[in-house]
Design a protein that fits this description.
Layout lengths: L1 E5 L4 H12 L3 E6 L10 E5 L16 E4 L9 H16 L7 E5 L3 H4 L4 H21 L5 E7 L8 H4 L2 H9 L9 H14 L7 E4 L15
Parallel strand pairs: 1-2, 1-4, 2-3, 4-5, 5-6, 6-7
Helix pairs in contact: 1-7, 2-4
Length: 219
């Protein structure tokens, strides 16, 4: 089995690439950055998903994890949304594809984060549903994973700031953020184990959005 993972050189993309390699999959990675994985079953393409003309020809893909993304940059829409569309339109309709997963964001639901980033991720949810409808006749499962806080290097500005970290934990019911390993488990479940759910956006945020409510009443 072969899985295509975008944004595979670091963070969640690298973690999921290593995870699937350990599971015995062949992994094809696409990233702007050079490969950081040394494995005989890993193939790396260094390219920009914003430019569909430079996307490589890749055959016999079974699963796709659309993970590549930028945060709070001038290219958030071009990369996160249009780049993801480029990848999906090029590879998602190939014969043999079984499931596609999009890495969205909890902010696509809450609206709280950098404006253009939020718009790019909200767009992914709409596009995911469009693809789920278009690929249903081929029995391809298409879903999105909307993560809240994740313990990655890119989130160090919050994680390593005691004041900010306390503020985040005060509003997070489970008092934790999701580890990269947990994210990998979710990706595996939604792509491989899931056999019936499609067109859904799964929120994994330790209760920060849906459970962060209070009931006001006279004591």
């Amino acid at each position: 089995m072969t899985i295509l993972i975008t944004g595979s050189s670091r963070g969640i993309g690298r973690a999921t690439s290593l995870y699937f390699l350990k599971k015995g999959f062949k992994v094809v990675g696409i990233d702007l950055l050079p490969s950081t994985i040394d494995d005989k079953n890993y193939i790396h393409y260094e390219c920009d998903i914003k430019n569909v003309d430079y996307l490589p020809q890749i055959e016999k893909i079974d699963y796709i994890f659309n993970n590549a993304g930028l945060q709070n940059s001038e290219d958030d829409i071009e990369n996160n949304l249009k780049g993801t569309i480029n990848v999906t339109e090029k590879y998602g309709f190939q014969k043999g594809v079984k499931a596609i997963l999009f890495n969205a964001s909890a902010s696509s639901i809450s609206g709280s984060e950098f404006p253009i980033y939020v718009a790019s991720k909200a767009g992914i949810i709409g596009y995911m549903k469009n693809i789920a409808i278009r690929l249903a006749k081929k029995k391809v499962l298409v879903n999105a994973l909307s993560l809240g806080g994740v313990l990655t290097e890119s989130n160090d500005p919050v994680i390593k700031d005691k004041k900010l970290w306390k503020e985040v934990m005060d509003r997070t019911p489970l008092k934790k953020w999701t580890s990269e390993e947990e994210v990998c488990d979710w990706v595996y479940f939604l792509l491989i184990i899931n056999k019936s759910m499609s067109g859904q956006n799964v929120l994994v945020d330790n209760g920060e959005n849906d459970l962060n409510v209070s009931f006001v009443w006279p004591k």
